[in-house]
Amino acid sequence: MDSNYQQSSAGQPVNAKPSQTANAKPIPRTPDHEIQGSKEALIQDLERKLKCKDTLLHNGNQRLTYEEKMARRLLGPQNAAAVFQAQDDSGAQDSQQHNSEHARLQVPTSQVRSRSTSRGDVNDQDAIQEKFYPPRFIQVPENMSIDEGRFCRMDFKVSGLPAPDVSWYLNGRPVQSDDLHKMIVSEKGLHSLIFEVVRASDAGAYACVAKNRAGEATFTVQLDVLAKEHKRAPMFIYKPQSKKVLEGDSVKLECQISAIPPPKLFWKRNNEMVQFNTDRISLYQDNTGRVTLLIKDVNKKDAGWYTVSAVNEAGVTTCNTRLDVTARPNQTLPAPKQLRVRPTFSKYLALNGKGLNVKQAFNPEGEFQRLAAQSGLYESEEL
């Protein structure tokens, strides 16, 4: 009994399991035709799968499939680990064939993740490239006419993917942003070219160009700048002159005025407004600034002080003149006409233009005596 005890203590027990710390040796591979349909065939098939399995870490531990768990139960943990370390030729060839079929390699987890990320980026880029759209103008401004010195704004909308870059050109020259020219984009995608103060040099054809990776689009708008008019207060080039006329005549009060813009004219007579466009009084004005006040059939009421006023946005000017109206002198009588005396059958017949003494001719006594002597009649005493 003692010898048996010592022998058993000196050596290992018969039924003792091999130590787990001992190095496990690779299991020799049996040809497939010998083990076909047996348990060893299943084990060798599992070994091939374990060699080529691309495992992922989950919370720092290996994630085992059902087949891997079965292999561990059949071969033991050490033998299953030895399967991964086996480098025999047949196993390497099988691994290469399997890798070529499935296009998979065993790589560290960090590398697998980075590759998947890079593949995702490539896929994302492909998706973005597929969504590129060329620029297209949805809203464009119309041609404009703006007064010099005014504010101006050109609004437009453009679509495209990615968002296009916008550039402006004036008569082929690039438009730069400065204190008087600004290019802005609102939150709603409304683009604007703003002129704080329009100048004469801003006039011309504006071309707007929108570009992105997919293409470009262009529209053109015309901007006309109306030159600012320089204002000048009215001034008399020559003033109306005082005049003296006779009643019934016509008279013109004339002057010439220079002003920008053309002024409005007002005429007064003795501080009362003169009524124009009547049968007697008319006002005429031409493009050169000549002004004429015409008065026909002048009478005493038309006499007095006349004031002409010219008014525009820049100022006002006035001038006074005098109109005197005098009565016409008395008319001289025309020379009398010579009267011709016709002969009559009367006592004046004896005159007959012979130059007789009129006194004797008009003496009744002498006339009676002469007629009596010629007729031979005598005076009767009875008479």
UniProtKB/TrEMBL annotation:
UniProt domain Ig-like: residue ranges: 135-220, 234-326
Subcellular location, principal: membrane
Region (Disordered): 1-39, 87-126
A GO term for molecular function: actin binding
Pfam families according to UniProt: I-set
Keywords: Actin-binding, Cell membrane, Cytoplasm, Cytoskeleton, Immunoglobulin domain, Membrane, Methylation, Muscle protein, Repeat
Membrane-crossing residue ranges in chain numbering: none
Biased amino acid composition, Low complexity: 87-97
Protein name, as recorded: Myotilin
Lineage, broadest ranks: Eukaryota, Metazoa, Chordata, Craniata, Vertebrata
